[in-house]
Structure formats: structure tokens, C-alpha cells
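no rush on this but wanted to send it before i forget. what follows is a protein written twice so to speak, once as letters and once as C-alpha cells for the fold. mainly i need to know what kind of three dimensional shape the backbone takes. thanks a lot i owe you, the record is right below.
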Amino acid sequence: MQISFHTEPDDHRIAKLAAAALGLTLLEAALPSPLPGVKPGLANIITLVVLMRFGWRSAAWVSVLRVVAGSLMLGTFLSPTFLLSISGAMVSLAMLGLAQSLPERWFGTVSISILAALAHFAGQLAVVYFWLIPHAGIAYLIPIFAAAALLFGTINGLAAATLLARLPRTPSCVTA
């Protein structure tokens, strides 16, 4: 008996984009971190591009696939590291969903990237506080991680905006 799966062109596109994001995740894992837990979030550039070109649903698929596949490849699946990553991704995706309803006139790719980076950090910090280290001293880390989120959110947003400006706009690139 042969099992076959029916796939759509969107499935192929999401798989390719998730693979690109996964490649950036693996590259980033090999880079030294200036502080524990502080990473540039390079894969979020792909998520932002997907959000702006194909909509929130596709961006959510790319993000979740990247986190799960990355944790499997890095050996962190179901570990505290995975739970921090998936919680940050979920809160960030929620923020991206909300950000899509903001006026484009004032909220572009860079500002949405900053909001998503701050949400990602907030989601992770909530998991740290409520599950791993329930101590008020965690609040001392807020300025450091917020500054990193602001810096990397800006850089990633600029990179995504540059990519979006250079990518051709084809009929298959409609927002869902």
C-alpha cells in the first residue's frame, strides 16, 4: 500500500522558506553570543518577509516549523531552551498578527520587527519568571534584553525591508 500526500504550491513555498529560516537558525547557533540568551534572531528576517508578502498564516507556519526543526537538529527539543524559543515565537507571532492591523503609514517593516522582537523577549522572560526562576531579580535583566530586542529588531527589520524592496512582486506574492 502506497500513501500519497497532496500538496499545494503554498506548501512548497512554506517549506522552502522554513528551510531558509532554519539555515539562519543553525548559522546563528554557531555564532558566539555576547550574553547568554541574547541572539540576533536572523531567522526572523525570513518570518518578516513572509508576513509582508504572504500573510500571517504563512509566517506562523514558517516560524513554528523553524523552531521545531531547529530544536530537533540542535538537540534541544522539549528542553527549557525549546520552551523558551517556542514561547518567544508564539508571543511574537501574536504581536505580528496584531501589528498587521496597525496603520501602514506609521508602522512599517522596521517598527513591526521591533514590536515582534520586544514581544519575543517578553514571552521568554515570562517563561523564565513563571517557570524557571520565579525571583524578582529577573527584572534587572529587562533593560539589557529590551535594548538587545530594540537593536536586533531594528537590524532585522532593515534587512527584511531591503529584501522586500529587491524581491520581484509576482502574482503569486499576494497577501493572504
